[in-house]
Write a structure and sequence with these properties.
The structure is a homotetramer of 346-residue chains. The first copy, chain A, is an alpha/beta fold. Chain A contains 11 helices and 15 strands. Chains in contact: A-B, A-C, A-D, B-C, B-D, C-D.
Chain lengths: 346, 346, 346, 346
């Protein structure tokens, strides 16, 4: 055993045909930024551990150096959102409803606000069945330019009315950095949609607001990239971020997306932020919602969010995945029973 | 509304620039195999519905015909394993232990049989904690040719001894069509590993045995391809097939594979076969096993299969994902509690 | 053969257990929007072809209707960007340089503008070697909030200076709808980055500008979604869109992304828009750039775009994939030779 | 800079909360197998470089040890097939036709042998146009059990007749370890299909034959796993392996698979084995074959293999991707012209 001191935040593996000059250049560059090199010379490969400031080291283009085969990060690129930084669970206050740290939030409502009648029918039903936060969108990013794009501010007004009527805070999506202030002035929780998870200008804008943010996972984002996106919001000063797993894109076509249920325990290991699951958008089909919602509870999620529509076949957005109010009531009974069992395991 | 009669098993969409001759050629070919064509002529596209024997129609290379843009199957290619063919759940008898149709099977043991001591320590522990079927492999297909490949027949003998000692049937993998008879002469349930799901010569061989088969999903197989593989076994006369979801390959790297938990309700919709979940190989990490096992129960699976090793750090195969006997005992308490709740929802 | 008339734009497959009422409800709904139903009744399934206005039909939530198994679109959702709409290749004028319809554009320069010296060294070299458009970014969306984010307007000023000095138009990225006007006031071609392909507010903004747009494919976008994104820009009135394939996310980790070279002939079949390839961001490694650039030419692309940096190991962004000016000069010799051969095949 | 000696073949990253005992246990285990530990202790993490026999070190289940976060291999798991082991290109002799090291092989013929007429029509055409190796299969693994499975030995006899008649060696697939001897007694080159890339019993059997092997990439295999599969064959004593890229499974549905053209230069960097491309099975459509074949040449492949069928619409297997004899003749003209240009770059 040979021993050295210092946090290696990056391992630089030199190529088999790297020259002594190549190795020296890497070491010099490390030393020029105040870092230290732990060099292990072998017959086949030289391996260099870089010790020093993580950000300074990790942002250099090591694989562009002559003779470098690859650079392997040892420490994760995100800081504030990691369990290393904060051990206790973050609890987010959404208009008086707590999420995280043992507080479970059923979130339900229509995918898009279409009319006062549709919204109020859905809101009344989900409130009665036990949902604690209302969902409903006023701005909808759509794959096809020919699809319904939302009611805009009119939708937010209706959501605020529903909040007053049924006594539950609401979450709504912001899709444009220019609308953040507007959405924030109405909603209790601002959602970042899957297509915008890597819209860094939107994330920065949200980091400067004082409303909590729900950050949906990008369709194709790794868990590490998703936590990096949360870091964007967090480091701007907004620490109230709720992660939302909603399925990723894979080769499987029998579901709209593939719900990555493992993301729940993985995020809980890596981060102190609460995480919920969206079974509606991951499965994409009404018949799958109950089973997938139960898996969210079983995985240890801090809540779930489902589309509930009084008449799914008339929905302007995502009807196939919306469940009926009566189905939601049945689902809540199952969720409550499973939560009680989960509670008993603590 | 215009109406015609007959099951359209395939829709043939002609290209925008298809000629009348192209359309005629497709219709003729359909009629030559005794099928009927429902033709809808539009300004932009002609669409042809093919009515007749599904297999005869679907196996023709329609997209090779001049002027054909694509062919969309309406009916699934598998028959016997579908819910259309049999509405009631299949119940499989594994050496006296029932699986499916409300019978839940906890399956546990070491990934590979390494020695009598290792196997018996694991088997004793899992039997005591409530597992009803023992797992343990004698043949291991490994990615690297330099890894441990299993004890072969010696391993099967040890498994048979453990069965006698602890009174539980066992499941073991067959990797070579030439070994099917051998494995079948010892094991109560023969497993097809993920790498062999599309090894059709192995599947056909298994279809001719009289022992039940556990069919793991291919790392990259769609649910439809997986059910097709089950059809291979079924149509040879072996109707005792248990599906096993074990994670698929995606871009996510924080877990070994991505557990596709939605596959449980989807397979239950499409097929009458029982389905279980392998939380060990999907997550690839010991810490994820409890949460993922709970999701299997919550999704409605008919069982689960986990790696349990008395000393994972000495394991010759897949140590990182094996849980300790004590962890398995804790897990079984959770599973029993959740099963009771699930039962109450029926 | 049975025959009906009218373009079926959607096929609705009813479930095996659908009732006559379910079928009637679908037909009624179709008729209520002025569409016609071609109904084919079989023993196992009823299949309904929907004839009428494509947008009206396709935007209804058919899979939310009771008894519907799935709805399969026959006609693509995009219109204006399709070959059906316009047969001849679109030719885009980028500050006097033509792209598409037989006009091939080599685009090169640094990934990000870092300084006057760095930009000018790169621009001079690529101009001399035969590049016709300069690349260089002033705004950089980065996965980690701790990475260099670009020089903003100062960067655009330097690019404009380089244009004047070396006589080549330039392309730069816009990442925020609020910056579109600013970027548009400097650049000859505005780029939409891969993370923003589905940022529909940004796309709409760009559709209202009079500068051409280069639309990079989303990391996880299907070709159909990518063409839908182009339709967003096109239908706002901006018809000068250049598609840019830059690799998709797959399970393979030995390259940064997987270059989907088949996208070149596929887009050319489906659309009249020009398409180029970015071999730098797809491969992610300097050593792969020459081979991947050659495949772009061989596939029939209308150009390519590469990162060229005078000293990649000092690059603040994406150094590992930048090639040296001398390597670019060698590459251009190969590209010219291959273009001549490709020309001979016409 | 601190310096130690010895090839680190694995880096073990301890978790943030690992105890000194955890670290000691890892070091002891390393020393127990004769390896040395390079330990770097930091405030956040301890990182251990393992120096010693690569196989002994890499096969231990490090991530099963208490306190270990992850283990990162530095050296690749394959040895004999790597460029580190042999710098010069391997040249494979296929019945007198050389492949690799500058020798380019056009391989063509029907996907499956269906009849003497079909085979001979195809063979005559491809021989005349310049193909040097004939393809044609006698055993076909099919996704659906209801599809045509091949003519078996009768097919091999016809291929041998065609070889005699047209003077070209042929390649055929072996799908069952029990058939290897049979196929080997007829064919000049034995193919392992994509579904069998990880069928290790088949690979071992092939490693003991004296005929060269063409190893198709698994639908979902990483390049590293694919080279591991080649290592299986190589280490049994058969050094004549030709790699064949044929597309991987991704989310994109407009092509049958996604041709990973980057695999050509990547395999050439990592290994000395020849690599060819199959444009027929990757694209899955006749219209894409010419463009994809040209990209293979441009990427630097050592050959390509295409399906050619005299009447694709009557093909029993994979008709949609087969090109006509006349199209193959045109394609060969393009290939020859591109090869001449590629030659000029050396």
């Amino acid at each position: 055993m040979k021993s050295t001191r210092g946090d290696e935040s990056l391992i630089i593996v030199m190529a088999g045909n790297a020259t002594p000059e190549d190795v020296a250049q890497v070491i010099e560059r490390l030393e020029s930024i105040g870092a230290e090199a732990h060099v292990s010379e072998g017959k086949h490969r030289t391996v260099i551990g870089a010790v020093g400031d993580r950000n300074a080291i990790q942002q250099l283009p090591w694989e562009a150096f002559s003779g470098v085969e690859r650079a392997v990060p040892v420490l994760k690129p995100f800081k504030f959102v990691s369990r290393d930084f904060q051990v206790e669970d973050t609890v987010v206050d959404v208009g008086g409803v707590l999420v995280g740290g043992g507080n479970f939030a059923p979130i339900a409502g229509p995918c898009a606000v279409e009319s006062r009648d549709q919204l109020f029918a859905s809101a009344e039903a989900v409130a009665k069945a036990g949902a604690t936060i209302l969902r409903g969108d006023a701005f909808k990013p759509r794959t096809s330019p020919y699809s319904f794009q939302g009611l805009a501010e009119k939708g937010l007004e209706l959501l605020a009315e529903a909040r007053a009527e049924f006594g539950m805070p609401f979450v709504a999506e912001a899709v444009d950095p220019r609308d953040v202030e507007l959405v924030s002035s109405y909603a209790d929780l601002i959602r970042v949609g899957t297509r915008n998870m890597a819209n860094f200008t939107l994330l920065s804008e949200l980091g400067k607001q004082d409303k909590p943010v729900m950050l949906k996972r990008g369709l194709t984002a790794t868990i590490e990239e998703w936590l990096n996106a949360a870091e964007y919001i967090y480091k701007e000063g907004n620490h109230d971020v709720i992660m939302c797993e909603r399925g990723i894109r894979t080769f499987e076509t029998s579901t709209r997306n593939t719900l990555d249920i493992s993301a729940v325990p993985v995020v809980k290991e890596l981060s102190h932020l609460p995480i919920i699951v969206d079974p509606s958008h991951s499965g994409g089909r009404r018949s799958l919602v109950p089973a997938l919602t139960r898996t969210a509870v079983a995985a240890g999620a801090d809540g779930f969010m489902v589309d509930v529509h009084p008449a799914p076949e008339t929905a302007l957005v995502d009807g196939p995945q919306a469940i009926l109010p009566s189905e939601f009531a049945d689902l809540m009974i199952q969720v409550q029973a499973m939560l009680a069992v989960m509670e008993s395991f603590r």
